[in-house]
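Project outcomes to date are best conveyed with an example. Our students and postdoctoral researchers have been running inverse folding experiments weekly, and each run begins with a structure described purely in tokens. The record below, which covers 461 residues, was selected by the lab manager from last quarter's runs and is presented without edits.
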């Protein structure tokens, strides 16, 4: 008879042996976000869901009442974003005679330029049928399927569009308007408008015979505000504290200035900005400005930057004209070295055959420069190099910047940081005017860190 080898069995009621955690390897710590020494090769971010308003926008007319959902209470006009659905109800007066109800979604660009004058371009012209009575079965039949007292509707706001003469898709730009200025740049006016137009068709009949249809339109202008966020955060540390440890967090733009006198040589300007290049409305853009060259050129730059020119005297003693800035007030003193956030509006004459563009620049923010050490050493040899450095922030204020950058083909809004060196006549400068540009993009919403991002990223403040 076969007997199996002896194997001790622990009784069911016996206590388990003690478990030593120190003898077991700890599981690895996984995260989908890179550490300071790693980088993301490819990722699919989860879209951020914004909480929708719970109010209503109501538009009343003699022929219908329109209710739009997900709006702020008491709003002057409805607002829609790129991820929002246009939904609501329409209640037509005399609904028993209504033949059809349609909604037309329209978007236009209107510009006025010095070369082409006024022009209106249609970006979007979508039509949705909300209700349609069944066709009549005979000559004397009015048709079946009467219009209900309340007709619900729901359709999506598109995010892209195409012009009729081009197959290129463009993202829908935000609603915007820059005021008229016919005495200034070549782009006098630019405006992007969106509207919903509801068309209610009523049957007109006599003695049971239908002989005409009346169309009544109700137009509802609305604001379109697509939402955008940076793909990555901007570094919060200063350049001097983080350039060596996190060089990839900074972006450098370089330009050379050639002095009027050969003994001054060249000056090199370098502006450093966070490498993300995308900055949200309501935040600040940190920058670092560096100037280097031989000592003579740096001394000349330092003299011009630190010299306060005398205040200009009034040019007129006559009474000021109405609605005009008083001529008795001296113009503000503009420093020779400035760092400015500029938005450039560009109007193209044609999508297929670009020609002379119409441009208008608008200053969004002006920084206050803070000088940084080292100071100029007077004992340095005349031909040795020296440097000057500044830092500062550009405020992207909500009351000034209402929408982000966009490219709608015919009309574009580009943002860039501009460093300008422009000495005044009183400086008797040996250095010419100079400009340096760094392109950026303004977005509507700030970057939101994941829950475990800060645990893996520690930037020195």
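After processing, the design step wrote out the following sequence:
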């Amino acid at each position: 008879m076969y007997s199996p080898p002896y194997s001790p069995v622990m009784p069911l009621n016996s206590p388990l042996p003690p478990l030593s955690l120190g003898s077991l390897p700890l599981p690895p710590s996984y995260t989908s976000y890179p550490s300071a020494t790693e980088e993301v090769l490819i990722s699919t971010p989860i879209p951020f869901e914004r909480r929708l308003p719970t109010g209503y926008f109501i538009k009343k007319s003699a022929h219908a009442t329109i209710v739009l959902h997900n709006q702020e209470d008491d709003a002057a006009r409805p607002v829609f974003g790129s991820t929002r659905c246009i939904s609501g109800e329409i209640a037509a007066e005399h609904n028993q005679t209504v033949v059809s109800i349609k909604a037309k979604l329209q978007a236009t660009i209107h510009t006025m330029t010095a070369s082409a004058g006024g022009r209106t371009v249609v970006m979007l012209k979508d039509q949705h049928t909300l209700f349609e009575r069944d066709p009549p079965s005979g000559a004397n039949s009015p048709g079946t399927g009467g219009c209900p007292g309340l007709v619900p509707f729901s359709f999506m706001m598109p995010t892209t569009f195409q012009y009729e003469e081009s197959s290129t898709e463009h993202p829908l730009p935000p609603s915007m308007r820059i005021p008229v200025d016919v005495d200034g740049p070549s782009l006098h006016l630019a405006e992007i408008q969106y509207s919903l137009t509801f068309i209610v068709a009523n049957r007109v009949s006599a003695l049971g015979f239908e002989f005409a249809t009346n169309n009544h339109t109700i137009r509802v202008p609305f604001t379109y505000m697509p939402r955008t966020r940076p793909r990555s955060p901007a570094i919060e540390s200063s350049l001097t504290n983080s350039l060596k440890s996190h060089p990839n967090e900074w972006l450098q733009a370089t330009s050379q200035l050639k002095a009027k006198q050969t003994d001054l040589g060249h000056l090199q300007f370098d502006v450093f900005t966070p490498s993300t290049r995308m900055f949200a409305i309501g935040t600040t853009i940190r920058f670092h400005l560096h100037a280097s060259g031989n000592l003579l050129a740096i001394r000349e730059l330092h003299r011009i930057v630190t010299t306060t020119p005398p205040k200009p005297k009034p040019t007129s003693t006559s009474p000021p004209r109405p609605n005009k800035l008083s001529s008795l007030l001296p113009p503000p003193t503009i420093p020779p070295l400035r760092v400015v956030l500029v938005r450039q509006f560009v109007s193209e004459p044609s999508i297929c055959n670009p020609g002379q563009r119409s441009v208008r620049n608008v200053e969004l923010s002006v920084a206050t420069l803070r000088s940084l050490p080292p100071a100029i050493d007077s004992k340095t040899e005349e031909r040795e190099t020296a440097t000057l450095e500044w830092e500062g922030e550009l405020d992207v204020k909500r009351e000034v910047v209402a929408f982000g950058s966009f490219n709608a083909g015919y009309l574009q809004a580009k943002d860039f940081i501009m460093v300008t060196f422009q000495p005044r006549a009183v400086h008797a400068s040996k250095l010419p005017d100079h400009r340096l540009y760094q392109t950026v993009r303004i977005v509507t919403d700030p970057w939101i860190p994941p829950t475990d991002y800060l645990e893996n990223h520690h930037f020195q403040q």
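The mean pLDDT is 81. The first strand starts at residue 55 and ends at 60. The training component of this project remains on track.
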